[in-house]
# Entry
Amino acid sequence: MTCEFIFRDATDIYSRLFNHRAALQGLTNNFVKEFEEKRGEKEIISLSRTHEVVLDCRDRALPSSLENLNNNVTLLKESVTKTLQMSQRILQDSDEKKVDWIESQRQIREQQWNEFMQAQVVRSSRVDTEFKNKIDSLKKHYTELEDKLKEGANKVL
# Structure
């Protein structure tokens, strides 16, 4: 019997030390009661409104949104492909215009170069004639001087 009493005492001490169910249940009930008294029905009303909004979105808005999305995605895809084709055409046209513009600019520069070269030829021929005239005038001048020297030397002799 003493073992029985010792076992009961030990389990009683153990339950008092480690079994807090009754205390926790009392604290939880107290917390819930205070929470309900302070908040009242506000949380329940808020949760029910949120639930209604979620149900409305799920039942009405989501199917219509999906349907509109599916319809508009195909239209958007078609529009994007048309836009892409048009932009490629524009790029192609601009490339062709660039080639035409480059060719016209090349012809203009070529014409300017030819005019410049003709002007250089004219200047060169003018310089050549002036140089030839100067050489001729210097030859004539020196031949006259030699003739005068010969005449002067003949008079002295």
User: Anything to note?
Assistant: Helices lie at 2-18, 21-39, 42-156.
